[in-house]
Amino acid sequence: MDGIKILAKERLELHGIKPSMQRMAVMEYLITHRTHPTAEMIFTDLYPEMPTLSKATVYNTLNLLVERGVVRLITIEEKNARYDACMDPHIHFRCRNCGAILDIDVEKHWIPDMPAGMSVDMSETYCIGRCTKCNN
Amino acid sequence: MDGIKILAKERLELHGIKPSMQRMAVMEYLITHRTHPTAEMIFTDLYPEMPTLSKATVYNTLNLLVERGVVRLITIEEKNARYDACMDPHIHFRCRNCGAILDIDVEKHWIPDMPAGMSVDMSETYCIGRCTKCNN
DNA sequence: GTCCATAATTAGAATTATTCTATTTTTGTT
DNA sequence: AACAAAAATAGAATAATTCTAATTATGGAC
Hints:
The structure is a homodimer.
Chain A: H1 3-14, H2 21-32, H3 39-46, H4 55-67, E1 72-74, E2 82-84, E3 90-95, E4 101-105, E5 119-130
Parallel strand pairs in A: 3-5
Antiparallel strand pairs in A: 1-2, 3-4
Chain A binds a DNA duplex through residues 18, 20, 22-23, 38-40, 52-57, 59-60, 63, 78-81.
């Protein structure tokens, strides 16, 4: 169970981020919760065990993680930004009915041919539809 | 120049939306401005010629248009929702440097194989990188 | 170990996009 | 003209995120 703490620390250091308690807690949370949480959810869940934690720190940390390419920012929902520490190629599906956000594994992210001179760092594909539960 | 008014009206009626002045103005704006505008931009641009226009109406109209599938909602940017009346298959590219949002034409939208029971109504692909200008 | 500079965290205020509410206006029908 | 239903409106309310100014933690030099 402590392997996750080490993993979180390594991931931060690998990207030149100083592993403070708060940053490790956020990183660890994202590694263990593959639920595409919002900043609010992360804060609410961590707060009881870290009563000095501030929402600003959660936002600061998430912004830093996204900037450095440690986690993915998911904008499949208009309202809230969501975060995902899983960097394996996969896309996101949102059920129009129940709101669930699910991972769909893919071999490789799709990047269409780009006009000359344009370079692409990353791509995200979002699908909207009905999930298996809501289709029955 | 009036053909656009007719086109806007047709598009609304085709989707069962009553073509009020305000709705036509928004629809017309989206057809003529392929800039992926925000609700704010649409309001600001229309307001001088329609001084009774309210921001709520712009939002109401955009939400209705998206619900009915008349326009696409683009969430490539965290902050603002953007809207696009072009329904031909294309994806969006955002330049990390200058913020421009550009269209990239594609043959067909990519929808990967889905687990059984899941149905997909639509998909959006967003690429982030550097545009031609910013690469030089 | 203490001193210092720098970086990180914090609480709460500020900002801003969007939605909601209650009212007024418009539209279409008898 | 009278009425009901739908649409538009202004402004208040909400909520996600950022900003600000102050506090706390960290790591190196001595």
